[in-house]
Amino acid sequence: MSSENHNTSKNTPPPDWKAEADKVWQQVSQRSADFYQGHKQLFSLPRLGAVVGGTLALSWLVSGIYIVDEGNRGVVTRFGAYTETTQPGPHWHLPMPLEKVKIVNVEQQRFIEVGYRDSSRSAKSAASIPQESLMLTADENIVNVRLAVQYQISNAKDYLFNLKDNEATLKQLTESVERGVIGRNNMDYVLTEGRSEIVAEIKREIQAGMDAYQSGLTIASVNLQDAQPPEEVQGSFEDAIRAREDKQRLINEAEAYSNEVIPKARGAASRLLQEAEAYEAEKTAKAKGETERFDQLLVEYEKNPAITRKRLYLEAKEKLYSGSNKIMLESERNSPQFYMPLANSPMASHSSAKASAEHEPQPDAIDNKANARKPAVNSDLRPSRSH
Question: Domains in the chain, ordered, with CATH?
């Protein structure tokens, strides 16, 4: 049974696709003819021309619609002449060839390089261009300077219409200004402490030149990528730099030592002056006190010379014997005097030490002088019981 079916399907002829396609086309043609016969007035030449013309006109007007993205400006020109500058957003202008729109990016940061070329913006590995980088300084030295200028468009109209090639003009002006500024300064100033001042001056002069040209450009920054002497004298220049650094180091050390020693010397001098002034004040005050005391004593002496003389004698005697470690005793009137040694007494030791500190003469010397004025004392005598 299955074999019979298989043989039957194998003997069946394939369908005729061409005949089917012709049949479908005839049906479509017939329906189209019927529609044309029923709406024949719609396919008249005037109506068809109007429809085609309207479609073309609408397409031409729609082509005037344009959109300005954020950060851009649209500059509209009519037959090549400037018309207006449009802000970001959707706009419409007369379609071509009446008006055209040029979109200008006013926020994009653009760069130019003077003295080197490198797409990675790294001056270390950049290829140097000697005809741009080698410059003469005021002291007739040659330096190798690499400069990068960053700018952006501030006025789209001026940027498009006032200069033919804005980037080439900016580069030429930058090189001219750079050579002028470098030529007004010495080599050491350019390579060391003057870098920031030189960059600021170059930026200021470039901006002034571009404003004079009405270029519509704003200089965002000027970067001094590298400033070195030529490679032929690099070794000698490095030696000079090391010598200059050693000089500055020695100067700093000397200043540090000076700042340490001078305050100490000034302090010592001030202390000596204060001590001298104090000594002067002390001696002056003491001399004035002695003078006043002598004047008072003189007045009392003039009033009563005998009493004053006696008082002075007793005071001197008391002062003389106050530091002695011996006590003078008088037994009876007009009798010989004798003394008692009190060297081992604590009070005598204290009195002797105090006397030696206050008076230059020693107690033994005072006793010798006193004994020299007194009669000899019998060592066999003993103090009486009454005393």
Answer: 63-105 (no CATH), 110-229 (3.30.479.30), 322-373 (no CATH)
Rounded Cα–Cα distance for residues 121 and 118 (Å): 6
Q: Tell me the C-alpha distance between 51 and 234, whole Å.
A: 81
* pTM for the model: 0.50
Q: Residues near 101 by Cβ (< 8 Å), separated by ≥ 6?
A: 66, 74, 75, 76, 77, 86, 91, 93
Nearest partner of 151 among 170, 179, 129, judged by Cα: 170
Number of neighbouring beta carbons within 10 Å of residue 283: 10
Q: What does each of the 387 residues of the chain score in pLDDT, given as a tens digit?
A: 444 444 444 455 555 667 777 777 777 777 766 665 656 555 556 666 666 677 777 777 777 788 888 888 888 888 888 888 888 888 887 788 888 888 888 888 888 888 888 765 554 556 778 888 888 888 888 888 888 899 999 888 888 888 888 899 999 999 999 999 998 888 888 887 888 899 999 999 999 999 999 988 999 988 888 888 777 777 777 787 788 888 989 999 999 999 989 999 999 999 999 999 999 999 999 999 989 888 888 888 888 888 888 888 888 878 777 776 666 655 556 555 545 554 544 444 444 444 444 444 444 443 444 344 444 333 333 333 333
Looking at residue 161, its amino acid is F
